[in-house]
Write a structure and sequence with these properties.
three-stranded parallel sheet; mainly alpha; binds NADP nicotinamide-adenine-dinucleotide phosphate; 13 helices
Length: 284
């Protein structure tokens, strides 16, 4: 996600320094014009720093500590956190940046790596209005539309998690429906064509239905462990707010099964294949 986003920032005329833990990925961008930093601290000298990292642990590793983003960012500068992280970490980041005299905007995104590369992400932004205003030129370079969710950064993270919960629910439902008709001999491609040109025309049905129908789960555009992380974070947020989400618990177990059976490197849409496996005769 980060590589495509970096290239769009450059295309948008922004001066950019890139940092990645594994140096090769940042180095691969060098010929396109950004400065390449050898440590995170060196990517924190500007007005804005953007983090786009795997999970809470990754964001904590880069943000806190002596050479972390908070220690190195200037007063009044903005940290835009675009990773899908927990509501709790978002709250901690907002407090830590405020204490350091910096600003914090949570701006998680919808859209897979091809959307990131095309500058077509949907961005959900939460934070103080003046800080989000200042980020708009950056969001315009990265996405097709930005939705402002209010002054609480963590609300943007909650909206993102709720969205991924919905997508995973669609993947599971599509997988079950396709297992049903597929076992009866209906052509899965023709079935999907029927669905997505009648009552289920949303892009999410087309994208994930196609992946399930073709059993196309590698290479992962959004890896299964990250999808699992989002369901766990959804459940944690639901626990905190005392909101029962039985479907989220079911999805949690689907991901545990996928990962237990060696699905670490697969796309998260591979949970959509589990129903067909459950329906196959033993040993098939
Ligand atoms: N892929 C999608 O379709 C998609 C869509 C929307 C949102 N997202 C969200 O966007 C974020 C990035 O996803 P992605 O698909 O780009 O993941 P990815 O390809 O796995 O990249 C993860 C990044 O996090 C870094 N990282 C992981 N652990 C770290 C640590 N402990 N310290 C420092 N850096 C660490 C990795 O560095 P190394 O290169 O050194 O491993 C890499 O740069 C995630 O929060 C994901 O949920 C993804």
């Amino acid at each position: 996600m980060g590589s495509g986003m970096a290239l769009n920032l450059l295309k948008g005329g922004h001066e950019l320094t890139v940092y990645n833990r594994t140096p090769g990925k940042a180095e691969a961008l060098r010929s396109r014009g950004p400065h390449v930093a050898t440590e995170a601290a060196d990517a924190c000298r500007g007005d804005v720093v953007i983090t786009m990292l795997a999970d809470d642990g990754a964001v904590e590793a880069v943000t806190f500590g002596d050479k972390g983003v908070i220690a190195c960012l200037g007063a009044g500068a903005i940290h835009i956190s675009m990773s899908t992280i927990s509501v709790g970490l978002s709250e901690r980041l907002a407090a830590a940046h405020a204490k350091a005299g910096q600003r914090f905007v949570a701006a998680p995104v919808f859209g897979r790596p091809e959307a990131a590369a095309a500058g077509k992400l949907f961005i959900v932004a939460g934070g103080a209005a003046d800080a989000v205003d200042a980020c708009m030129p950056i969001f315009q370079a990265l996405g097709q539309r930005t939705y402002r969710i209010g002054d609480k950064p963590q609300a943007a993270n909650l909206v993102k998690l709720s969205g991924n919960f919905l997508i995973a629910s669609v993947i599971e439902a599509l997988g079950e429906a396709m297992a049903l008709v597929g076992k009866a001999g209906v052509d899965r491609g023709a079935y999907l064509d029927f669905l997505t040109s009648t009552l289920f025309t949303a892009p999410i049905y087309k994208t994930y239905g196609g992946l399930i129908a073709e059993e196309h789960f590698e290479p992962a555009a959004f890896a299964a462990p990250l999808g699992f992380k989002d369901i766990r974070l959804t459940i944690a947020a639901a626990e905190g707010l005392r909101v029962p989400m039985p479907l989220a618990s079911l999805l949690h177990d689907r991901f545990v099964r996928l990962l237990a059976q060696g699905g670490e490197a697969l796309d998260w849409s591979a949970i959509g294949e589990l129903a067909a496996k459950d329906a196959a005769p033993i040993g098939a």
